Amino acid sequence: MARGPNSLTGVLKSSGIARDLLSQAQDMQRLLTRVRKHLPSPLESHCRAALIKKRQLILFVDSPAWASRLRYYSRNLKSLLLREGMRVERVSVRVMISDAPHRHKGKAAKKLSTENASLIRQTAEGIGDEDLSAALKRLGSHV
Question: What is the pLDDT of residue 7?
């Protein structure tokens, strides 16, 4: 008799490598939660991930500006974590690069002057290539 679909968690727990990865991800999440509770309010929301390698705490933030602020705070963080019993010799901060496209917050695009638009349309009428002519006509219409 056919069984229903397995849950993703069930599949991950049954596979050796996947189980190890899941355990590692859970450990990293617990560490991140532990670190965030010692960070000041705006900084804790920008700390995206944390891991420990050879007594070095590596923190990942979402921008270079927040990385600088966290570097300034890292000495305080280290002493707070040492008081809590975490054996950390060094805190290092890195910027986590996002897959999301970066939105450009530049100036609005400039419009063509009426004279330039007229020149572009006149040029478009004298060109034999239909695709280029159509593209220039579209460009000339942006006044």
Answer: 76
